[in-house]
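Hi everyone, sorry if this is the wrong subforum. Our group has a chain we'd like a structural model of before ordering constructs, and none of us has done structure prediction before. Sequence below.
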Amino acid sequence: MNTKKYNNWKKDLRDTNPALDIIKDLFFKDSELISIEESGNETLIWFDRYAGIDWVGKNLDNQIIGVAVRIQWDINYRTFTIRSKRHTGTKTELEKRKEAIRKGYIYPTYTLQAYFKKTNPPELLSACMVETKALYRFIKKYPDLINEKSSDNIFKIIKWKDLQINGVQLIKEKNIPIQLPIINNTNKGFFTSKQTKSESITKQYYKFKN
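Answer:
Right subforum, don't worry. Here is the predicted structure as tokens:
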């Protein structure tokens, strides 16, 4: 087995780990999570490197999911951002995920994005999670609602508000401001035998301020 050190693209773990711990506690309180970049396991590293999965999760019913996680600091855009074009011309997150969904390959069950203020400890500004397949279905169905941002790469920007308005169910923990109170913010894992997947998502469903 190749045991060479794995270099991940994320920011310095000394900054991100406290933020990741906050997210884990909010969204996956009673689930077991493995952070792939900390695992040192070459097989798990394939899930990150080739499938875009940052965490592998297991709930009390031994159901397994993969989660793609993105953290941004000192801003609060309340959007999902997806790399759609690289200056190098190599395949992007968008292309790989669309291909995986279309061909039945492995991809993250959920996509999660969170915004933190860079304090010690980090302060959560907002966080939201969505089923990956639903997110990419939305991108295809509503191209006029998708914005783009350019740096050295190009990113597609999807507003949480637009997803919600168009019927995409979102799982969230904190977003300021909101119109409705959270119905249930004691997330007991991503779902259990007594709580169906749809029920779990619906209980975390919320409306954004226009």
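For your construct planning: The CA atoms of residues 19 and 122 lie 6 Å apart. The chain has seven helices and nine strands.
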